[in-house]
Structures are given as structure tokens and as C-alpha cells.
Specification:
With about 300 residues, this protein is of the alpha/beta class. The chain contains twelve helices and eleven strands. It has an eleven-stranded mixed beta sheet with strand order 3-2-1-4-11-10-5-6-9-7-8, sandwiched between helices. A hairpin with a 2-residue loop joins strand 5 and strand 6. The longest helix has 21 residues. The mean pLDDT is about 95.
């Protein structure tokens, strides 16, 4: 049987992206599972140990060379951005899954790039909503909002936004083999606002969204206090947990996951995955980076290579 092609962008060349990419490519499970195609800056990949027998390489040609200690740089931002742009174009042309090593949001800002990260760029280039979600075994969560200040959340949490996020999450869970997903929706305020005593979001936004989803035939419960929601999910009551903001999801995920987490973007025309961590400039170049999440991201992409929106 022909192995699926998996596109891999190497991330910020001064971060741990090249290192975890090479370590993942050296894993025999990755080589058995797919035909990897790596997109990145050649010198940083070669320094990390890249050889032609590990993968096909699509090198990026840049007018100047990287230098100095690992840190956010405009050049690193331009390189990683160009890699992702190339990966998206190829994924749209071929329907191959895309795995993205970590980029630095600060590097992108230094390079004058208007997008704050992968998800925003993917949405713009694919004209799709794009739902950020995470999978680690039976631990599954998704985010209604991503990288925003907590003070901005009340205006961002709308009934329509919550509904669409739940629908994308449910469709993604079905693609993972769960025929009738049962979702738990986290509340925004402590104690799910105790019927409006600690805020209005539950009664004004979240409850109406849950009722609308149930009328559509979806199995959704909430809004639930975050601590109770996570405990119920970990005990198997819910197939996935829809969280409202970044730390509500990531704190529970990183404490509860018993295996490496995979970050994926649902709702796109192709499957996109990534490791669930950042560039780790502080350990870059020291051969200390743990590749397990990158390996998991590539294996997930290979297993679900026929993923279609």
C-alpha cells in the first residue's frame, strides 16, 4: 500500500523546530507511516542532522543567513512564515496533511507579518473558520477563542461563535470514529455564574447556544463549571470538552494527558496538525528538545491523511 505524503514545515529556524523535525524523522514509526516532505531553511535542518534519506526537502532560499543565539528575529519570522505559506499552497493543491513545527509569534511580528500565528493564517488562506483543538488519547478539547486577552472575551463570545465551534468540533470527533459525540461546554464565570450572580455570559450567550445545538440534534451539555467539566470528561462522560479560552483548555490538557498531545485545526479543506508546545529558544541548539509531540503530530496526520472537511 502506498504511504501517504505528509508535508512538514520546520518552524522557526532558531527554535527547536529543526531539531524535533529531524528527531521525528529518525523514528521508525514515522518512516513506516508516511512519505515526509520537509519545508524549511536548509542550513538549520542540516545542522540538526538532516540527510536526504530522511525526507524530501523543499529548501527556502533567503537573501541573508541566520546568526546569533536562539531568539526571536525578523529573519526567522520570514523564513517560518514562508515555509507555512508554501505548505498551505501544497496542501490545497494535493490534499496532503500539513504538520507545522512551532513558530515564534514575536518573530512574525518583528518581520511585519500581520498574522499572529498559524491558525489565523490558515483561516485567511483557506477561507475557512478553523477550530483549534487538541487530542491526547481520550482527552479531547477545543477552543472557542484562542490568543486573546481575557478582558476581550465577553465581546468575542457570541451565540453564533459558540455554535459554529461546537459544530466543527463534533464533525472532527466524528472523523475520529466517534459516531454520536457527546460534548461538554465549559462556563465562562466561576460556578457557571450561579444563575447570573457572577456574570451574564452563561444566561445570555452559552445557554442559548446549547439549546440551539440541541434543537439541531447535537448532544451538548452545559455551561459547566470548568473543574467539574474536566473531571467529567476525564471520567468518560464527554467525548470532548469545548472550552472558551486558551488556558481553560491547555491547563486541563497538560495536567491530564497521559500521552503526547496533538494540536490540530479542524474545519479546513485539509488536515493540519502540530506539536502542542512552542519554540523553546532557551533550549534550542542543546539537543534537549523532546520530539514526542512532533512524532505524535506526524503519526496522527499520516493515520488521518484522507481527512476532508
Amino acid at each position: 500500500m502506498t504511504k501517504p505524503v505528509v508535508l512538514i514545515t520546520a518552524g522557526d529556524p532558531l527554535g527547536i523546530g529543526p531539531e524535533i523535525t529531524i528527531k521525528a524523522l529518525r523514528d521508525s514509526r514515522v518512516q513506516r507511516a508516511c512519505t515526509p516532505v520537509v519545508i524549511g531553511e536548509a542550513a538549520s535542518l542540516v545542522a540538526a542532522g538532516f540527510t536526504d534519506d530522511l525526507a524530501h526537502l523543499l529548501p527556502l532560499n533567503m537573501p541573508s543567513k541566520l546568526s546569533g543565539k536562539p531568539r526571536p528575529t525578523a529573519l526567522g519570522g520570514r523564513i517560518s512564515f514562508q515555509a507555512v505559506e508554501t505548505g498551505i499552497k501544497l496542501a490545497l493543491q494535493t490534499n496532503a496533511p500539513l504538520v507545522t513545527a512551532p513558530i515564534s509569534k514575536q518573530s512574525w511580528a518583528l518581520a511585519g507579518i500581520e498574522f499572529t500565528g498559524h491558525t489565523e493564517l490558515l483561516r485567511a488562506r483557506t477561507h475557512a473558520d478553523g477550530l483549534m483543538m487538541f487530542v491526547a488519547g481520550n482527552v479531547r478539547c477545543a477552543l472557542v477563542t484562542e490568543h486573546f486577552a481575557l478582558a476581550d472575551l465577553p465581546r468575542l463570545l457570541t451565540k453564533t461563535h459558540v455554535q459554529k465551534s461546537a459544530e466543527h468540533f463534533i464533525q472532527a470527533l466524528k472523523k475520529l470514529g466517534i459516531q454520536s459525540p457527546h460534548l461538554g461546554l465549559c462556563a465562562f464565570n466561576p460556578h457557571a455564574s450561579d444563575n447570573g450572580k457572577f456574570g451574564r455570559e452563561e444566561n445570555a450567550v452559552l445557554l442559548p447556544a446549547v439549546r440551539a445545538l440541541r434543537r439541531q440534534g447535537y448532544h451538548v451539555e452545559g455551561p459547566l463549571p470548568t473543574d467539574a467539566a474536566w473531571l467529567s470528561h476525564l471520567r468518560g462522560q464527554y467525548d470532548g470538552l469545548l472550552c472558551l479560552y486558551h488556558d481553560q483548555a491547555l491547563l486541563g490538557l497538560k495536567l491530564a494527558a497521559q500521552e503526547p498531545a496533538v494540536h490540530l485545526t479542524a474545519g479546513l479543506p485539509f488536515l493540519r496538525t502540530s506539536p502542542a508546545h512552542g519554540t523553546a529558544f532557551d533550549i534550542s541548539g542543546q539537543h534537549l528538545a523532546d520530539p514526542r509531540s512532533m512524532i505524535a503530530a506526524i503519526l496522527f496526520a499520516a493515520k488521518h491523511a484522507n481527512w476532508k472537511n
